[in-house]
Specification:
Shape: globular
Oligomer: single chain
Number of strands: 14
Number of helices: 11
CATH superfamily: Ribokinase
Radius of gyration: 18 Å
Structural class: alpha/beta
CATH architecture: 3-Layer(aba) Sandwich
Mean pLDDT: 93
Helix content: 25-40%
Distance between the termini: 27 Å
Order of helices and strands: EEEHEEHEEEHEHHEHEHHEEEHHH
């Protein structure tokens, strides 16, 4: 397998668990547990791909601070190439506080250097020789948005396939510029909320069809409902796997890693969806998106146990 380039945000996740309700201003509540782990959609996906055995090159920005060094060390320890990570002393590394229970989570993010990554940070030399480009958290990548079309054109000209996870839009505008970019994307990986917002509908299946009509293979992550995609004109649904979940932080990003691992090996769509669902489920067994990431043997064992 050739190199996968992952371009996106870098931050630390501070996860507080055992949160049954959101706190109100002027009050205090207690969490059942706390953990600091590598965060961000992009980093979690990159680490998931590395755990599955893929070669990964990461492109992102951090501040010259303890959080930035923590992020870079986590990537390097996993065998991920970090030469293209830019340290900016004028910025701080991002931080996400996740309030988590076993079935869902709420996130508060300090962006820091997250929004500063731009197309110029991904010159053709970084794309050369790679097989695939994955971009996460489009709506947080403010600087990258302006040059996204140029980047995707250059990536495709270099022979790379492209996947994109939009992430949630904190401003709620759901910029139509993303829809234009989808014409240059091979695999689009929104969750149900994101897909419905982009397609201006409350119906998940209708959102899937609307987005797929633009051109990419669209995979909609639907939490405990599993996932769905279009195979030609047929909607394919794959249920979620049941595991002893501790924390759902990063489950969607590990889903992305599992799907891309199988898809880049030219596996049938239904098989890719099952790999994705298995990786997403297995990642929920510990606090954070990375400590319980599954290797190939664990994924295969779960798939064989749940045919």
């Amino acid at each position: 397998m050739s190199t996968i380039v992952v371009a996106g945000e870098m931050n630390v996740d501070l996860i507080l668990t055992g949160i049954d309700a959101l706190p109100a201003f002027g009050t205090e509540m207690l969490a059942g547990g706390a953990s600091q782990v590598p965060g961000s959609s992009s980093m979690i996906c990159a680490l998931g791909l590395a755990k599955l055995g893929d070669t990964v090159r990461f492109v992102g920005r951090v501040g010259d601070d303890e959080r930035g060094r923590f992020c870079v060390a986590a990537l390097r320890d996993a065998g991920i190439e970090t030469d293209a990570v830019i340290t900016d002393g004028a910025q701080a590394t991002g931080l996400t506080v996740a309030l988590s229970c076993a079935t869902d989570r709420a996130l508060v993010t300090f962006p820091g250097a997250i929004a500063d990554l731009g197309g110029a940070d991904l010159p053709d030399t970084l794309l050369r020789g790679a097989a695939h480009l994955h971009i996460s958290s489009y709506f947080l990548q403010r600087n990258l948005q302006a040059g996204i079309i140029d980047l995707l054109v250059r990536a495709r000209a270099a022979g790379l396939t492209v996947s994109l996870d939009p992430g949630f839009d904190p401003e709620g505008t759901w910029d139509a510029g993303l829809l234009a970019a989808l014409r240059l994307v091979d695999v689009f990986l929104p969750n149900a909320v994101e897909a419905c917002a982009l397609a201006h509908t409350d119906d998940v299946e209708a959102a899937l069809c609307t987005l797929a009509a633009i051109g990419p293979t669209v995979i909609v992550k639907h939490g405990r409902e599993g996932c769905l995609a279009l195979d030609g004109e047929r909607v394919v649904r794959v249920p979620a796997f049941t595991v002893a979940a501790v924390d759902t932080t990063g489950a969607g990003d590990n889903f992305n890693a599992g799907f891309l691992y199988a898809w880049l090996r030219s596996q049938p769509l239904a098989h890719c969806l099952r790999w994705a669902a298995a990786c997403g489920a297995l990642s929920t067994r510990a606090l954070g998106g990375t400590p319980a990431q599954a290797g190939v043997a664990e994924v295969r064992a779960l798939l064989e146990a749940c045919p």
